[in-house]
From TrEMBL:
It comes from Marinobacter salsuginis. Residues 1-24 form the signal peptide. Keywords: Metal-binding, Molybdenum, Signal, Tungsten. The gene is modA. This is Molybdate ABC transporter substrate-binding protein. Pfam families: SBP_bac_11. Belongs to the bacterial solute-binding protein ModA family.
């Protein structure tokens, strides 16, 4: 005996929904990211939007660009490398760990001198010259592009050698920011994006002129580990979308488009 017409239609709809869910579950995947520490908060917001729009999931490891590059060379299973410079992604591509033609600049970073103390300094250049602080935080110039930019600023102002005994170096820009937030350093060179994500008092901020340091072009590259993963390719496309660039700009970066 056959189903009444209404019950047949209902059963067909249920089967359609279930099969659609099964297909979606089969298609959805996970992308593993190695992300420069300065981009932590931005990545978390991007990941939420990406997961909502695509159904894919995101896992991310954060650290200094130099250390992430070393991990990739040693076989870390990242699908995408999001560096805080252009040098390491270019090396990854040259060393055939990255997929040729996928490297692009997803953000241009901005360096700032910041103290959580309100009115910590007036003229920032005079503040650095007078050195009325016991500790000044920077990221390690050898592993963190923002640390290299900080060194370039101090060299531009002819203070690099004079300040050596007062510099405290973070392994990454994230650790450097923590030095300042915890007041283990009275001020520090940090990413502008970190200050924008900080929810406490604004403190004292100096927007450092771009002419004082080389552009911080942050590049991403699809790694060979993720070359055949739909989720990894979708993430790379998402980073170029209007949605992503709006989020990136809101966090204090410039973008190419």
């Amino acid at each position: 005996m056959g189903y009444p017409r209404g019950r047949r239609i209902f059963r067909t709809l249920i089967l359609f929904v279930l099969s659609g869910s099964a297909i979606a579950g089969a298609v959805a995947g996970e992308v593993s990211l190695g992300v420069a520490a300065n981009f932590t908060d931005t990545t978390r917001e991007l990941a939420k939007r990406f997961e909502t729009e695509t159904g894919h999931t995101v896992s991310a490891s954060y650290g200094s660009t130099g250390k992430l590059y070393a991990q990739i060379k040693n076989g870390a299973p990242f699908d995408v490398f999001m560096a805080a410079d252009a040098l390491r992604p270019a090396l990854v591509e040259e060393e055939q760990a990255g997929v040729p033609g996928t490297r692009f600049t997803y953000a241009r970073g901005k360096l700032a001198l910041w103290s959580p103390t309100v009115a910590a300094f007036g003229n920032a250049e005079d503040y650095l010259a007078r050195q009325p602080f016991s500790r000044l935080a920077i990221a390690n110039p050898k592993t963190a592009p923002y640390g290299l930019a900080a060194q370039q600023v101090l060299e531009h102002l002819n203070h690099w050698e004079a300040l050596q005994h007062k510099l405290v170096r973070g392994d990454s820009i994230a650790q450097t920011f923590q030095f300042v937030v915890s007041r283990n350093a009275q001020a520090g060179f940090v990413a502008l994006s970190q200050i924008k994500a900080w929810h406490e008092d604004d403190g004292t901020l100096w927007h450092i002129p771009q002419a004082y340091y080389q552009p911080i072009d942050q590049q991403a590259i699809l790694l060979q580990h993720g070359a055949d993963k739909a989720a990894a390719k979708a993430w790379m496309d998402f980073l170029k979308s209007d949605t992503a660039t709006t989020i990136i700009r809101n966090y204090g970066y410039d973008t190419a488009n």
